[in-house]
Amino acid sequence: MVGVSEVTAWRPRVSGIEEVFHAHFTDHAYPMHAHGVWTLLIVDAGAITYELGGHAHGSTPNSVTLLPPHVPHNGRAADPSGFHKRVIYLAADLLTDLGAAVDAPAVTDPLLRDRVHRLHHALRRPGEELEAQSRLVFVLERLRGHLRREIGATQECRDPALAGSLRDLLDARVRTGITLEQAAELLHADPAYLVRTFSRHFGIAPHQYLIGRRVELARRLLLSGCAPAQAAVTAGFHDQPHLTRHFKRMLGTTPARFATSGRTHRG
Predict the structure, then answer these.
(1) What are phi and psi of 29, to 5 degrees?
(2) Could you tell me which CATH number the domain at 4-147 has?
(3) Over 50: is that where the pLDDT of 267 sits?
(4) Averaging pLDDT over each range in 116-130, 150-164, 251-265, which range is the top one?
(5) What would the pLDDT profile of 181-209 be if each residue is shown by its tens digit?
(6) I need a labelling partner for 194 at 20 to 30 A (CA). Which of 51, 180, 186, 232 fits?
(7) Does residue 143 carry a pLDDT above 60?
(8) How confident is the model over 217-237, as a mean pLDDT?
(9) What's the topology of domain 209-265?
């Protein structure tokens, strides 16, 4: 008998991510199988035991598990309480060093664990693709360091000209947006370096800067009589709830209330 409390799966609009899978299993056991992509797994409750490369391994809430493509593995709950897990399936060409992943698929790295958690959070929110892309490059950077056994200090990033060029790109595409891959290609820069140097120079991440500019545009549209739903789409948001979430965070009120707040002062 298979006990399943919840399963949610979707494919986000983020290059390099093939699928996101969230599940709570009680007595489910995976048979031996293999994927054609990388499996990036975190456990939120319980624990998982599995076999990979002829050896027994385990995943706990304190670890991050990276399973390589084409290598068979299974999986089951470590105890009767089951487990909650979140999985991101990454394109096979994003990482190398399969052997290192077979030998040590689970790593204890609080920074990486937090980065993966925050990536999942961004992936659940439509319209936050730039944030998800930015978080993904830092996850990949950390994973590559583990696969090469080179975890250490991050690269110093001080390039005001590059930071300014990215700001100009974001300003020019407030409504349409731009992917991190497009920006990196146009500016001939590594994506992780690009995000880091922008953040250090301006004190804000690129996706936060773009959201702020979009809220600014939405404010002007609302005060010009544009309906909240139309203002959201025109300003580059996914939909009205997407605008409302960021609008309330920045201004402490909803777009609709903001739009009507000054009516008594109008002639």
Answers:
(1) -130, 130
(2) 2.60.120.280
(3) no
(4) 116-130
(5) 999 999 999 999 999 999 988 888 999 99
(6) 232
(7) yes
(8) 95
(9) Arc Repressor Mutant, subunit A (1.10.10)
Which residue, chain included where needed, has tokens 């909240």?
Answer: 228
Torsion angle, CA of 58/70/101/53, rounded to 10 degrees? Answer: 60
The count of residues in the chain is 267
Mean pLDDT of the 170-183 span: 94
Range 206-223 average pLDDT: 93
DSSP string, the chain: ---EEEEEEE--S-TTEEEEEEEEESS-EEEEE--SSEEEEEEEEE-EEEEETTEEEEE-TT-EEEEPTT--EEEEESSTT-EEEEEEEEPGGG---HHHHHH--EE--HHHHHHHHHHHHHHTSTT-HHHHHHHHHHHHHHHHHHHTT---PPPP---HHHHHHHHHHHHHTTTT---HHHHHHHHT--HHHHHHHHHHHHSS-HHHHHHHHHHHHHHHHHHTT--HHHHHHHTT-SSHHHHHHHHHHHHSS-HHHHHHTTGGG--
- The separation between CA 52 and the C-alpha centre of its own chain, rounded to angstroms, equals 27
pLDDT number for residue 263: 62
Which neighbouring-strand residues pair with 57? 50
